[in-house]
Amino acid sequence: MRHAARPGSWRRCGHCFASRPCLERAARPQGGGGGGMLATGTESLLRQASVCLILVSREVGAEELGRFCARVSALLQAEDWGPDALDALRRLFLIVAATKYSRRLEPTCVALLQTTLCSPRCPERLQLLCAAVLREMAPSDSLSLSCDHAPSSRQLGLVASVLLAQGDPQQVRTVGQCVIKVLESRQPEGPSLTYLLPVVSKVTSLAPDALPEEQTKALSKRLGDWLRYASVQQGAAHASGGFFSTPRARQPGPVTEVDGTVATDFFTVLSTGQRFTEDQRLNVQAFSMLRAWLLQGGPARPGAADADDRSELEGSTVSVLSAASAASHLLPPAEWLREKALEYCQRLLEQSGRRALRKADSDLQKACLVEAVLVLDVLCRQDPSFLYRALPCVRALRTRLCGDTACVRALLPIAQFFLHHGEAAAVDADAVCQHLFTRIPSEHFHSPMLAFEFVQFCRDHLVLFGSNLDLLRTSFPNLFKFLAWSSPALTSGFVALLPVLVDAGTAVEMLHLLLDLPSLTAALDLQLRASQAASERPLWDVSVRAPGCLEALRDPQAQGLFQHLLRAKASGTVERLTPLHQLLQPLASCARVLQCAQAVPTLLRAFFAAVTQFASGALASQLALLLLERSDSLFQVEGYEADVHRVLSSQFPALCKLHPPLVVERAKELLEFVGSLGGPRSTGHMLTSVVWAIGEYLSVSWDRRCSAEQISRFFEALEALLFEVTQSRPSAALPKCPPQVITVLMTTLTKLASRSQDLIPRVSLLLSKMRTLAQSPAVGPVHGEDDLGAVRTRATELLNLLKMPSVAQFVLTPSVEVSQPRYHRDCNTALPLALDMVSRLLEREAGLLPG
C-alpha cells in the first residue's frame, strides 16, 4: 500500500516487515476466544519492533541495495518460496516504499519479481509482496507484464494493479478491456470475479471513457443484479472428512441481521454470517464501488430525455412504486442500476436502526449510513424523480440521528442531501445547518475524523450555502474549536476557508480569536479534564497537571471569560482575556497547545491576505489599533509571541498603506504605544514596523490634518526612545537593541525633521552623536563591528541629506506622484545612481559646504 506521506528520513529497517506479523501475534489473545492474556514473549517482541522503528532511519546505499537485490534474486530464481523469501520481500518492500526518493532495482531482480507474480505455483502471500514492490517502483521502463500472462483472476487483479500504477493512459484502457472480457466470458464454474471489480473501479476513476458504452451498460446491469439478488443463505462449510461429518450438518443456514435475527429481506453489506458465497462478496464489492460508478456515469443517458414526461406519473410515492414494480424488467441498464441502488440504500437505512450485538457491526452500521445517504444524494441529483421515494427515509433518519451522538458523522451527508434538494422537497435547509454548526463542533470537537470531514464539508459546499453563508460566518467561533484541537491536520483547510468566513462584520472578532487560539486549546483541554464521563475523555498530555486550572474553571468570576472564549457564535463583542491567560498558564506546555501556537502565524497571514481585499479605511484603522493593543497581551507559550510579532509587524505597514490617514487618526494611540516601548519591548519587530509607518505616513501629503505640533510630539517621543535604547546596557532582562531598530529610529526622526525644518538642528546634533557613539571603543564589545558600521553609515547618509534641506525633503518625503512608482527603489532608473553620486560628492567636499 502506498504511503500517503513518506517521511524523508525513513530509509530502511533490517527487521521491520518481519517483525510486523510478530506484533500482530503478540497482540493476539491466546486461544480462539475474544479475551485472554497476551501471548508469551510479548514484551520481547514489542522491544524488537521498537528497535526496528529506530533502525528505519539508517541510510541504504546503492551498493547495499544491490547486494540485497542479489539475495532476493537468488531466492526467487531457485523457487525457494519459504519463510526466507517472504522475509526478504518484506524488507525489500520497506526499502522501496519508506522513502520519498525513487529506488532503482537490478533488472534481473525486477524480471524475477514479474516471473514470480505470474507463476501458478507461487504462494499468494509472495505474489502480493511482488506486486507491492513493483507498484512502488512505478513508473518503470523495465516492466514486461501483460494481462495475458495471468493464469487466474486473482493474479490478473495483481498484474492489473501494477500496470495501472504506471500511469500510462493507453495501458489503463488495455487493462480495462482485458478485465471486461473476463467479466463477459465468465462461466458459472469459471474464475472468481471478486478480484476484478476493484480493477474496474480503478480503471473508470483513471479514465472514465476507457470502457465502451455497451460494456458499461452490461456491467451496470450486472452490478444491479449483484446488489439485489445475492444469495440469502450462508456459504457452505468445507467438509472436514471426519467420522461424524454428515450432509445434514454441513447444510448452510440463512444469513442474519446485526441484531441476530434471521434476515427476511435481500442480502446487503450489513447482513452477517459465518461464511459467505461469491455472489455475496460481489454484493459487498458492488456497493463499495457504487457511488463512484454512478458519478462516472453522470445523469441518466437514455432516460433523461423523458424524465419530464414521467414527472406527473411519479408525483406521489404510491404511483412511483407501482410503476417501478410493473416495468422494472424493462428498464435500461443505467436506470436498472439506479433502481436497485435505491432499494439497497433504503434497506441499509432500515438495517442501521437495529441494535448491533458486536461493536464491529455497530461501526459498520455508521459507515454504511454515511455511504447510503451519499448514494441517495447522487441518485436524486441524476434523476429528480427518485427524490419523492428517498425523502421520507432521509427525513426519518435525520429525526432519529439528531439525538444520537454515536452517529453524528452521518449528519454531514444528510445536510448535504438537504442542501442539494431542500428547495425541491420543501425542507428548511436552514434548520439542518443550524443544528450542524451549533451543536456538533461544541460537543464533538475532539473527534479528529469528524473535524476533518466537517471542514471538508464546508469547503465542498460553499456554493450551496447561499443564504446560509451568514450562518457559516457567524459560527466561526465553533468551527475554530476544531482548528484549536486538531490544528496540524486542519490548518490548510482553514487557510482555504478563511477568505469565505471573514467579512467586515466579523474581522475584528475573528482576529482576536485567532490570536487567542492557543488559549482556546487550553480551555478545551480543561473542559475535557473536568468532564464527568471519564470513559469518554480523549487522550491528553498526562504529564501536565492542572488542579488549579480546574478550580478556576468553577470560579464564578472566571466563568464569564471561559464562556466568552468557548462561545458557539460570533457575539460582536471582545473581552480582555489577560486574567484567563494567567489561569491557563499551567497548560501552556501541553503538546496540543504548542502545536496550535505553531499554526497561528500561517492562519494570520491567510486572514490578512483576505481582509486586505475588502477592508475599508475604518476597518483598517480598527485592525491597526487591535495589533497595537494585542502585541503585549498574548498567551505565553514558548516562541509564540515572537512568531506572532513577526506576522503582525509585517501587516501593520500593509494596513497603513491601505489607509494612510490612520497614522494621523490614531496619533494618540501610537504615541502611547511608542511611549510604553521601554526596556525589553524596545527590541521587538512591532517597534520597527510602527516607527517606520510613522515616518512614512505622518505627512501632509497623506493627510491634510497632519500638523507641525503632531510632528513635534512624535519627534520628542521617538527621540526619547532612541536615547533610551542606545544608552541602556544589555543584560539578561534587557537584551541588546538590534541595529535595525536604531537605524529605523534615526531615519524616521530625519523624515519628521525634513517636514518641520525647525527640528533639523536637533536631529543633526542627534545624528552626530550617534555617529560618534558608533565610533566609540566602549560600545564595540556590546554591539559588534558590523552593527556599529551599519549605524555609522546610516547616520552619515542622513547628515549629508540634511545639509541640503530641499533635497532631503524630496528624497525622504516624496510626493504621492513620485512615491507611487518608487523610482528611488527601482534599480533600472537613474535616480539611485544620482543619489549615490551626490552622496559621494558631499562626503568629498564636506568642508566647502556651509553648515
From TrEMBL:
Q: Which residues form the signal peptide?
A: none
What residue stretches are annotated with the AP-5 complex subunit zeta-1 C-terminal TPR domain?
494-841
Residues of the AP-5 complex subunit zeta-1 ARM repeats domain: 364-481
Per UniProt, residues of the AP-5 complex subunit zeta-1 N-terminal TPR domain are 37-323
What Gene3D superfamilies does the entry give?
Answer: Leucine-rich Repeat Variant
What Pfam family is a match, any one?
Answer: TPR_AP5Z1
Put simply, this protein is called AP-5 complex subunit zeta-1 isoform X10
According to its UniProt entry, this protein's organism is Bos indicus (Zebu)
Gene name, please? AP5Z1
